[in-house]
Design goal:
Elements (H helix, E strand, L loop, with lengths): L16 H10 L4 E3 L2 E2 L3 H11 L4 H15 L1
Antiparallel strand pairs: 1-2
Helix pairs in contact: 2-3
């Protein structure tokens, strides 16, 4: 296997290679190793929004807006 740790698929979102690169860039602070990232509430929110058809920009905007409403 690629990892010594058990893996759990937490979300799937549509996209192409450019979308994947953008996600890698946006979540760079959460990267553990190569393709592996630490799960976070923001990541789960963004991927959930994208799985519902939002673009990465729209999903990030919605997350920021949800934080502003909670404050």
């Amino acid at each position: 296997g690629w990892t010594a740790y058990p893996l759990e698929l937490v979300a799937v979102a549509p996209g192409d290679f450019a979308t994947e690169r953008a996600l890698h860039s946006y979540f760079a602070a959460d990267r553990l190793h190569h393709e592996w990232f630490r799960s976070s509430p923001e990541m789960l929110f963004v991927i959930d929004q994208m799985s519902r058809g939002a673009t990465l920009s729209e999903a990030v905007w919605a997350y920021d807006r949800s934080l502003a409403r909670a404050a």
